Each structure stands twice: as C-alpha cells, then as structure tokens.
Amino acid sequence: MGDKMEVWQGTLALMVLRTLETLGPQHGYGIARRIEQTSGNTLTLNYGTIYPALLKLVQEGSIVAEWGVSENNRKAKFYKLTRTGRKQLEKETKTWEQATEILGRFLSPKGDPA
Amino acid sequence: MKRLRAWMFRLGGLIRTERQEQELADEMESHLQFHIEDNLRRGMTPEQARRDATLKLGGLEQTKQAYRERSTIPFIENLLRDVRYALRQLRKSPGFAITAILTLALGIGANSAVFSVVNGVVLRPLPYAHPGELVSVQSRVTTGTPSPELLSYPNFFDWRKQNKVFNWIVAYHDDEFTLSGSGAPEHLDGEVVSSGLFPLLGVKPALGRGFLLSEESAGTHVVVLSYRLWQRKFGADPKILGRTIKLDKLSYVVVGIAPRTFRFPVQNPDVALWTTIAHDAEPVQGETLFTERGARSLDAIARLKNGVRIEAARAQMDSLAAALAKQYPEDNGRLAGAYIQPELDKVLGDTRRPLFTLLGAVGLVLLIACANIASLLLLRTSEREREIAMRAALGAGRWRVIRQLLTENLLLALFGSAAGLFLGFICNHVLLNVAKASIPRIAQTSVDSNVFIFCTLLAILTTFLFSLPAVMQIAKTDLTGSLKSGTSKNTQKQERLRSILVVSQITLGLVLLSGAVLLTSSFLRLERNDIGVRTDHLLTFSIGIPDAPDSIENQVGLYHQILQRLEHLPGVISAAGAGPLPLTGDQIVFAFDIQGQPTSTSNRPRSDMAFVTPGYFKVVGTPLLKGRDFTKLDDLHAPHVVIVNKAFADRFFPGEDPIGKRIKAGPKMREIVGVVGNARQSVLSQDAEPIGYLPYYQVPIVPISVVLHTSFAPRALESTVRDAIASLYPQLPIYDVRTIENLLSVQIAQPRLQMLLLGTFAGVALLLTLVGLYGIMAYSVARRTREIGVRMALGADRSMVRFMFLKQAMKLVAFGVTFGSVGTIAATVVLRNMLYGLTPYDPLYFLIACCVMGVTGFIAAYIPSRRAAFIDPVGALRTE
User: Fold this and answer.
1) Measured between alpha carbons, how far is B642 from B655 in angstroms, rounded to an integer?
2) Of the candidates A29, A51, A61, which has its C-beta nearest B67's C-beta?
3) What confidence tens digit (pLDDT) does each residue in B544-587 have?
C-alpha cells in the first residue's frame, strides 16, 4: 500500500477531461474507475472527490451533464465534453507536458545526453 | 471568464431546490449501485459490497456536503442560513424582539432626526461652485476682544482695489423695496450688491446677465429678479430682459433672472431681487455713503484665488486694514484688522456648537438604549444556554455560535434602524416646524442618503455595542458544561455584568438630566427676564414707504397722519412709531461724546439707539422714570433732545442726574430730557443694554415700524388697520405684521428648541433607565425566590425583605450618581455657551437632577421589592 499515491491538487480535472475524451460520455463512477485503472491502480482516489470536481467543470462550462441509461439499464448522470472542454484539455495537456519535460530534465541522471 | 461563469452558477446555487437535492441523492445512489454490482461480481457478500462502496466514496453525507459547498458560496450560504434561523428565533420570542426593536427605533430615530438637521445645516456645503473657496470678509475690532464689524464703502473699495488674495470680492446688504406698477403695491426683500456676484459664486443666471462694474455708479438702475418673482409677478415672460419695473417709484431695467434654486444670502430665502450699489451712491442731504468711511453697513463675500490659503488672505487683509487704520484714525482706528472666516461659518454663526451638543446628547440616549438591549440579551443568552450547548455538542464552534448570535442581533438592529429612520422622518418634520426661523438653512434639511448611511452605520455600531456583553459571556463559558448540569453557573457573573450596565445607564442618564435641568432653568429665567415692555396687546407692522430722497419731510407728515388715524380706530388704545423695534435683536449702534468728557475718537462711548415718536413709551408700557417724554414740538426745527434708558444713565452718568446733561451724537449736541425704564432690544443678552432714544420727527433717517396698544386681541385688528391705511394711502404696502408674542417667540426659539430637545432626550433616557433597573430587580427577585423563602422561614419579616432589595437597587443608583457627577461636570463645560444668565456650576441644578434620578431609581426598585416582600414563604421553598 505504501507505494500508492494521492491525487495531486489540480490534476484531477485534467484526468477527468482526458477520460471523457477517450471514453466519450461517462457517469461519475465510470470516470473514477477509469482513472484508477489508467494509473495502474497506483493512485488512491477517494471516489467522493470526483463529484465536486465534476460540478466545478460543469460550472466552468467544460462539460455538460445529462441523465441517461447505462449498458446494464441503470439510470445515471452522464458527463460529456464540450468544445470549451476540448480546448481546455488541449491547453492543459500542453502545459503539463512542458512541465513534466522540464521536471524530467532536472531529475534525469546527470550527464545524460539529451 | 470561466471563473466568472462559475461564480454566477454558484450565486444561482444559493437558491437550492428540492429537485437539486433529489438529483444529488439519485446520482450518489446510482454511483453506489454501480460500485456494489462491481463488488458483487468480484465475489463480495452484499453487506461487504455496500460497505466497501460507501467507504471508497469517503462517506455519503460528506460527499454530498462537499458537493453542496461547491455548488454555492459557503459563506453566503451560511449567512442566509443564519438569517433564516435568526428570524425563526426572533419570531419565537416576539416580546423580546418587539421590545428590542422599539427601544432601538427610539434611539436611532432620535439620532437620525438630529443628524438630519446637523447634516442639512452644518455638513451640507453652500450651494455655490467650489464653496470651500468662499470666505466672509469683515473688519476686525482690534481694541478689546476681537469681534467682526461691518464694512464701510470706502474701506470696501480700498480692499477690493488693493488685495491680491481674492479673485472676486463683493459687498452686499439687505434692503427693502416697494414694487408698484403692476397690481397692488408689494413690499419685497432685496439685496444691494456690488458687481461680480454671479461669477464670484460660480452661478449662471437663468436669463440675461449679472451686474457690471460700470453699473455701480450713481444714476444706474438695474435689477436681477428672483426666479419666483419672475414667475409670480411677470408670468415667466422671456421677453422681460430690457423692460423696466417700478421700485420705490424709480424705474429699474431688468437685466437678468436668477436660477430657480438660487439664494443669496443663503440664509434668506425671501430675497426677491438684486440691484447694484448704485442704489447707495445717490447723495442724501449732500452726503453719499460711498465717501463716508465711518458708515459701516456692508457685509462682504470673497473667493480666494487658486491656492491661496485663508491664513494668507488673513495676513494680507490685516496689513491692508492696519494701513487704513493709520491713514484714517478717526474712522478706522478701532478696526486695524480684517475678520476673515469661511463663508459657511459666517452663515452658521453660533448654531454649530449647540447642534453638535444635541447630537452628542442624543448619542448618549442611544448608548442608554444599547445598555437596555444588552441587558436583555444577557438574560436571553442564559435562557438559551441549553440550546447553545446543544449546537456546540453537534459540532458548532464557539465562533460559529457567536456569529449566529451577531447575525440575530444585526437583524434586530436593522429592523430597529428601519423603524428609527421612519420615526426620524416624522421627527424631522416636527423639528422643522418648531425650529423654522431659529436656525439658518434648516428649512432645506431632509432625510437624504447621508441620513440613510448614518442610520445603517448606527445599526452596525449598536449591534456590536449591545452584543458585546453577551458575546463576552459566551466566549468565557464552557459551552457543553451547561448541557450536563442543566442549570446555569453563570448567573452570578451575569448579574454583575447587568449591574454594571445599569450603573452606566444611570451615569449617562444623570449627565443628560443635569443638562436638561440646566437648560430648562436657564430658559425659565430667560422667560422671566424683565423685558421692559408689555408682553400682550401689542401689534406691530411696517409700512413700505419709498425712501426716495425728496420725501423725507413728507415721510414725517405721512407717519403723523397715519398714527393719528390709527389712534382713533376702535380697539386701538394708542399708537406710535419706533425703529428698530424692541425684542427683535435689531440694533443701531452709535458713538457719542459726553459734554465735558472729551475722549479720543476711537474710544468714544457707544450705545444702542432707537428712533421713536411721541407717546411711544406709553404704548409699549415702558415707564418714564424722570423728565419728560417727546412731544410733537420736538421736530426738525426744535432744540435737539434725547431720552435715555436707565442702563444708559447708570453706565455713563453713575451717581448723577442725567437730566440736562448733553451728549454729542453726530454733528449735533443733544440734551437729555428724560430717563425711561430698560426695554430690551434683545431678550438673549444677560443685562439690559444702554439705549438712547431720539425723536423720530426730529431725525427721520431710518424706517420705523408702527406699534399699536390694543384693547382686543391684536391679530383681530389687522384687517381694520389695513383698511384704514389703504383709505389714506392705497399705494403703500403693509408688511411684517406681528404681535409682541410673535417677536418674543422668534427670539427665544432657539433656546426653547434646545431645551425641548434636551428635555425630551433626558426623559427618554430616564424611561430607559427605569426599565433597565426594573428589569434587573425583577429578575433578581425571581431568581432569589427560594432564598427569600428561607429567610422568611428563618424569621425575616416582609419589611426586611423589601429593604434588602431596595438596598441593592439604591446601591446601583448611588454608584451611577457618583460616576454621573464626574460626567456632569464635563457636560456643563460643553453647555456653558447655551446658558443665559446662569452659572452652570451651581450645585442646586445638579442636586435637582440627582433627586429626579434617585426617585426614578426608587420607583423602579420599589415594585419588584414589594413583590419580593409578599412572596409566600412556603410556596417559595417548594420552587425548583
């Protein structure tokens, strides 16, 4: 258990957006499961935190929510990426890639030829 | 943009609906179901599956709460919840809520009424452009105490030419005109001004223009009309410019119309026209005011040049005045300085200080009201101790509990403030009616946005004040402790707090009370002042006689004829003329020489003077003490005579018989032929002023008013008098018809208003103190019922029990009176200037105040202690 990580502040929104981009419309539980799976079960995600995060994205207009029916015929609220959301995802992905690249250079073994 | 959108959503989220709650519950439920199904597939038992799902969610309620907080703004959401809760709490105890709100309404209402006057009169700037640059310019008397003195024309012209500190300086004085030509002749108030008034004030005329420098020379007759006169008399005719109107039988060309709201001078709303100082340039008996340096009749207003400070202006004008004093020692010797003050100060005169004093007094009333509410709140807090403990046990922090309490109190204060604003609105109207003539600019005060802001601030301030003791109590209390014990351990401590509150109430109340007693006795004394004239059955009025220079001799004949006619009217006992009238505060001061006692010109004795017709003293009932009255024979051709009053004789001829003595006033030597009793020109001065009376028929140089001694109610005669004069001279307007009672009441209006207000405040303070003390005593009796029972069972009789409680109450009163006496000393220093002929440090007034407070305290304590004495000991022992 000791090697599991907490979700970093501010990254959850990005993960949600990315998940919705790959999976298409999805309900809260589905998103949470998917995030966990994608991380190879190395993230401990408190499922409850996903809902305020979803609400924030709805308020900001990045996603919209709609009631629908799941494959196993259960009523659920589905979240879908909007055009604003796509743009936001694109922008934030780029920012993150840059950030990780810079951090990666700092942290890579010394003298490593780029 | 994104963030703004989110905030809008959250703001909208403040209104949470059932449906949203339901949706959230549904979403959570579906989440759990998904998870449980997954878990079941992984082989968990149903119980395990649900438990794991809930655990993974991080608690169902916690998640919902986090979601709700994200969906609204928690701070405001809490506030709204607090407000709803507070409203519910207040509704639950309407008695408390109504008492508190009414008490506050009384306090805040009185404050807003007084503040609206202070705001309108003192704080509101003058209605001209850049009013801060406007200053009043007068001469300063440099012998003795510095005091302002009017300007003479030559001094004004010199100052206007030589100064480098003013953009504009304009001289002005009041005058009266008779408008004839269109309809019945009408008497109008007018203002004689030098050129440049409108640019000085930064005001553009509604039509036409103001006055030019060239229009100041003799023979020019131009006039600017007030908007109202233009509308009323000339039907707002736009073609009026260039037309002539008849004023005092002379033709004046209308050159402009003032704006609708224009007033100058600002304290005189009745001015109907403005004309130039050319009016005074005409020579009268060979002399013109323009060259008489000793004839001081002008006020002046000036606008400071950009960046020039008033001190700099003062310095320069002082040096100009000093130079003139050296150049013309005869006329200017006493006036070697300039008296320059902000124009607003000049307008307000000495009304500023009493107003702020009253505002302070009414502030004390509010403090006393706060103490009452604070005391109530303390009680209420301990009654609610269990409820508060319950909330604490359920997780509310101390700060959260206090915040809830503050919300509730703020709500009370806001309600009280709204009611107070309404009350203040009514009081303001009452106040305006009472104070109309006595305070400059008061007619234009109203409850405006400043008053609204003031009330809101008061509400917030009072909330903190009266919440403080209760908050202190909560802050110190073990919140959950009382839940366990059930009864309060803080009663003792709380009662001490409430006692402190009552003592401070008594302290403040005593300060107000002593002030009120002082003002009342000062006022009563003022009313009892011997004014030297009869105080009933006198009617006075003025006749608008055109003061065209050729008519001086005619004027004498005209008054003679009119007075004779009036004396024969039924209901008129006698008639005479006088100017200025007594009790009006109007003064004409003259300097004179006493034969055989030469002095330098600037140290000549000075006295009031008045011009009267024969028989005047009989009409007004001033006794002739020595010598004779004027007769018809004291005319232009007879030897020059003067009658003096007793104060004059005592001051200038102490221990001598003044009859036959001679004084030189102006060019003529006059013989004193009579001494009369002291009649007052002004009621407010402490001692009677010396007055010299000159026979009007000998020196007909000032307009006089007619005084009638009537046998019936003087007002009833008004129409008879008008008809009688109209039958002789239909073209003469009659104005300023007043009874002696009218004159008196105008003079004492301001002290009366101050007395009434402070008296009312003290009364309210007393009432609030009574309620406060009664409250604490009644509570104390209720709390100690059991103790009383024990005492009685052990042999205490009823009077001992009663004495016990009376002693407790009187101890509080004694403390309050002790502290109050210190406050009273401070208060009398403030009030000193509002007293007439009274030494404020007289212990008698303070003793009266203490007695009133003591009796009030006794009444407040007596009722509860009586109840205590009649407690049935057996029943009392069974309580609890």
Assistant:
1) 19
2) A51
3) 876 554 566 777 888 888 999 999 999 999 999 998 888 887 88
Contact between residue A22 and residue A7 where contact means Cβ atoms under 8 Å apart: no
Q: Which helix (H) or strand (E) holds B257?
A: strand B250-257
Residue A113 lies in a domain: no
Helix, coil or strand: residue A3: coil
The reported pLDDT for the residue numbered B289 is 84
Chain A contact set for B4 (CB, 8 A): none
What's the CATH number where A101 sits? 1.10.10.10
Q: Give B45→chain A minimum CA distance, Å.
A: 20
| CB atoms inside a 10 Å sphere around CB B298 | 24
pTM of the full predicted structure?
A: 0.74
Does residue A86 form part of some domain? Answer: yes
As a whole number of angstroms, the distance between CA B456 and CA B461 comes to 9
* Cross-chain Cβ contact B63/A51 below 8 Å: yes
Nearest CA in chain A to B36: A29
In this structure, what token pair is assigned to residue B116?
Answer: 């609206």
Nearest Cα neighbor of B456 from B121, B111, B94, B100 is B111
- pLDDT, residue B549, reads 46
Residue A9 lies in a domain: yes
| B618-675 pLDDT, tens digit each | 999 999 999 999 998 888 888 999 999 999 999 999 988 999 999 987 778 899 999 9
> What residue of B is the nearest CA neighbor of A71?
B34
**Pairwise CA distance, residues B190 & B221, whole Å:** 14
Chain A contact set for B67 (CB, 8 A): 51-52, 55
Domain count across chain A: 1
Of B426, B414, B410, B427, nearest to B455 (Cα)? B414
B628 vs B400, B617, B631, B632, B673, CA distance in Å?
A: 88, 11, 9, 12, 6
The CB-side HSE value for A107 (13 A sphere, CA atoms) comes to 6
Lookup result for tokens 């597939």 = B41
**Residue ranges covered by each domain of chain B:** 2-72, 143-335, 351-527+749-878, 545-732
Structural domain range at position A27 = 5-107
Helices B18-41 and B60-71: crossing angle, nearest 10°? 140
Torsion over CA: B417, B421, B422, B426 (sign): positive
Amino acid letter for position B542: S
List Cα–Cα distances, B718 to B59, B565, B575, B599, B715, in angstroms: 93, 14, 14, 48, 5
Nearest to B35 by CA among A46, A3, A63: A46
**CA–CA min distance A74, chain B (Å):** 7
Helices of type H across B529-638: 552-567, 616-620
Beta-bridged to residue B36, according to DSSP, are none
Q: Is residue A112 part of a domain?
A: no
Phi/psi for B188 (5° steps) reads -130, 145
Nearest to B222 by CA among B281, B275, B277, B272: B275
With beta carbons under 8 A apart, name residues in chain A contacting B38. 33
Select from A48, A74, A84 the Cβ nearest to the Cβ of B58: A48
Range from B56-65, B146-155, B194-203, B370-379 carrying the lowest mean pLDDT: B56-65
Task: Kindly tell me the sign of the dihedral angle through the C-alpha atoms of B774, B780, B782, B786.
Answer: negative
pLDDT for residue B707: 94
What ipTM was estimated for this complex?
A: 0.84
Kindly list the residues from chain A whose CB atom is less than 8 angstroms away from the CB atom of residue B41.
none
Q: What residues have CB less than 8 Å from B206, skipping those under 6 apart?
A: B227, B256, B257, B258, B259, B260
B478 contacts: CB under 8 Å, gap ≥ 6: none
Q: Are the beta carbons of B723 and B735 closer than 8 angstroms?
A: no
pLDDT in tens, B701-731: 777 899 999 998 888 889 899 999 988 888 8
